[in-house]
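fold-stage: in
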Amino acid sequence: MSNLALDTDSEIVDLEEGDVAALGALRPVPRISVQAFCETESVANPIERAASDRRMTKAHVKVHMGGVPTAIEFYQSAATPNLIILESREEPRQLIASLQRLAEVCDQSTRVVVIGHYNDVWLYRELMRTGISEYVVAPISMADVVSVIAAIFVDPNAAPIGRSIAFVGAKGGVGSSTIAHNVAWAMSTLFTSEVVVADMDLAFGTANINFDQDPAQGIAEAVFAPDRIDEVYLDRLLAQCAERLSLLAAPSTLDRTYDFDAEAFSQLIDTAQRTAPCVVLDVPHIWCGWSKTTLTQADEIVITATPELANLRNTKNLVDTLRRLRPNDPPPRLIINQAGVPKRPEISIEDFAEPLGIEPLAVIPFEPQLFGSASNNGRMLGEMDAQNAIVQSINEMAHVLTGRAESRQRKKSGLEGILERLKIKR
C-alpha cells in the first residue's frame, strides 16, 4: 500500500509505506543551507519535494539545473553552503576529475553529496577517500534525499526525541481538549514512559481544571521568555499530574493578549520533546501563524469533530490543508465525538468520513453524565470508570498514537445501531 502525497506542483506522488516509515523515524534537520545542481528533472523533483518536508523546515534549499560544471562556475563568485548536492552522469574517472576542480572553489567545511548513474564500487571508494560525504546511485526518492541529509547533519549519538501529537478541534466545543487530556493520561498509565501535556490555549485553556491543578507557572512563562527555555527551566514550569504525567498549564486569564509569531512555540516543543517520549499538544480551535506551524511540524495530528455539517466542512478544510502542508506524512487521524445527541440531526459516520477519505480512529458516544462528572471532579474518565467502553476506546487510541498497535477497522457500535433504528422509526 502507498501513501498519496502532493508535491510542490500539486502532482500526486506515491510514497511507499517503507518511505513513510523511514521519514517518520527521522529527526528534524538543523538550520543549514543546501544547494543542489541537477542534470535531470527526475533528480531535481525529489530534492524539491524534500525541501517542502516538515523535517526540513529549518533548512534552506535551492535547486539549480546543471551539474558539476555549473557548480564550479557558480562558486567562482559565491560562498559555498553547508551542503552541496551534485548530480552527474559522467563516467567514474571523469567525475573524479570534475570534483577535484570543484574542490578548488569550495570551503573545506562544506559537505558534498554526489548522485551518480554508475553503480561502481571503485567510484564509491574513491569518492569516500577524497572526502565526499555520500554517493547515491540514481534514481532517488524524496525519502532518500531527506535521509541522506539527516545522516550527515543529525548526531546519531544524540538522545532520542519524543513524539509530538497535536490535538485540534474542527469546531469549538467538540471536546478536543478533553480527548487530548484523557489520551495523554492513558498513555502515562498504560505505558512506563513520561508524557507532557502542553495546553496551548493560553486565554481559555482547561487542562488545569481537568487535571485539578493550579500551578503558579506554566506555558506562558516559557513562551514569553524563549531565551530562557532549556530542559532545566522547562522542568521548573511543569506541574506533576500523575506519576508519569506532567502539565504545561495555560494561565487561562485575560490580563494580557496572546499574539505570537509563527515560530513562538517551536523552541518550547523541541525542548519538551527532549525531556519526554511523548508530548501531547492541546491546540485551540484557531487558525493563525503559530497554530499552523504547530500542526505542520507535529509528528501526528488528531482532529476531533462532532457529526454535524459545519464540523464536516471545517474538518475537510483542515484535512486538505494539512495534506498540502505535510505532503510526505499520513493524513490526520479523525475522532468523532458526542455521537448520538438526543433529537439532534446528525450526519452518519459513513457519510461524514467518505468525503474526507479517512476512517475514524474512534467514535465516542454522547455521555454527558460520565464526562460531566469527570470534569467537575478534576478526574480523568479512566479514574471515574475504568471499565467503561469509552475508556477502552481511549486506551486503544493511546496504543495506536504511540505506535504500539495498528488502527483497527471500526465496528459499528450497538449505540449506532439503535440510533439508526430510531431514525428510521421517526
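fold-stage: in (second)
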Amino acid sequence: MGVVPTRRNIKKKSGIRKSQLRVLSLSASATKGWLAVGGLRVRCALGRSGQRAIKREGDGATPIGRFKLLNAYYRADRLSRPRVSLPLVALRRDDGWCDATGDRNYNLHVRHPYAASAERMWRDDGLYDLVVVLDYNLRPRKQGGGSAIFLHCARPDYAPTEGCVAVKRDELLRLLARVARQPVLTTSRT
C-alpha cells in the first residue's frame, strides 16, 4: 500500500524540492543554461570553458558536482538585506577571496590589502551585489583545484563567467527567497 498524501508529508516533500537548485545546459561546453528550483526556472551564465568534472585554477570552467550553498554576501549600499535562509553578511570594501595557489588562505575569504593574489569582492560592476559561496574545493582544499566558485549576479548579456554560475540580480533574489534551509546546487552535463 502506498503512502497516503497528507498535508504533513506533502509539505515535507515540497521543502526538499525547494532546497535543490539544478543547473541545466545543452552541452558540457555551453556557457549559458538554466537554473531551476522548484517550479522556477531562470537563465544563467556559466564558465567561459563550459563545465568540467576536473577543474583547475584559471581554466574558466564551472565545476560539475553537487555543492552546498554555504553563506551569502551582499552590498548593503545597493540593496536591502535579502530574505535568504543562508547566513548573510554585508560586504565591506576590503573583502577579498584568495586565488593564489600555494598560499595558506587559498580559496578562502581574506581582507585587502592582502600579500598574495586575491579577488576583490567589492566590485563596481554589480556582479557581487549578491554573491553566494558554494562548497567547492573547501573541505579539503586542493591547491590549484579552483577558487572563488560562487553563485552571483549575471552581466546583462549573460556573458560567460570565470567558472561561477550567474543569474540576473532580481532573479537571484527570487531564487534565494524560495530555497529552504541547507540548499544544494547541482551542475552536470545534460
